[in-house]
Amino acid sequence: MMKTCLALVTTLLTLAGLATPCLAQSVAPWPQRTVTLVVPYSPGTGIDIVARLLAPRLSERWGQPVVVDNRPGSSGNIGAEAVARSQPNGYTLMVNAGSFTIVPALYPHMPYDVASDFTPITKVGVAGYALVSHPSALPVHNLTEFIAALRANPDRYHYASPGNGTPHHLGMELLKMRLGVKVVHVPYKGLSGAMSDLLGGQVEVMFTLIHTALPQTRSGKLRLLALTGATRSPLAPEAPTFREQGIDFMDSLDTWYGLLGPARLPADIIHRVYNDTHRALGSPDIQDALLKQGIHPLESTPEQFAADVRNDLQRWAKLVNDAGITAD
Fold first, then answer.
1. Which CATH number does 35-126+255-323 carry?
2. What is the pLDDT of residue 25?
């Protein structure tokens, strides 16, 4: 009898141990209804374009509607909070960008925790930035001349950004801190005002996404001084990178676009979304459409993406703290 009881206990413990991983799996086949891709920004933004490119392809693969739900406001916090509070069943996902990891450094009282309230699934692509200047307001021709001009004239020149805490702002602050130069920040409420004053010469220099800069630089209205990224951009193979010109710390400014879900998303759903997203990204027309937006298609496993999010949170928090940047 004792041996029988011990055997029974052993069997039950073994079954319990085998059952534990199953808790991380979805109970029913997924998806069985509409999947929502939340975009925490307005229609027409890069994040929105990525979501609308992916939605119909994922819908084809899943046999269910995939809809894009724009929930802008509060620097992306409104939409992100909705995803963080959603059920981890795969029916509410989020498309976001690298700025998602900057916001926590700017707002001390966040409605969610980027590190623990989300499941990174995969990156979709990465976009680089261009440093551009007004050719007559700041008569320099390359990065070396630009740095020399700033060193010779501390606080004489001004740089625009779409607002405090944006990558455009942090990129210049990183350059200032690492090179010991001084240039005055002029924040705007959005990109259009910043670009308009740069084109008018009211400010002399700015960081902006590569595909936004190229029409202005190729028309001669602005001058392209350097691009972020480890290699030259296929959109502008003629343009040198920061790295080529002796500055190796600006690659980190590149911004990613990616898919995330709420925390505790089941493993089988994570890998289904990951695999189907990258099958969609393999389509030449999707790749071409992304490249036209300055986004290079990129494969990243859930584990790699999660590690990148953690690293981004740390490095942006350090830069914001060191530079004394606030959201105001």
1. 3.40.190.150
2. 61
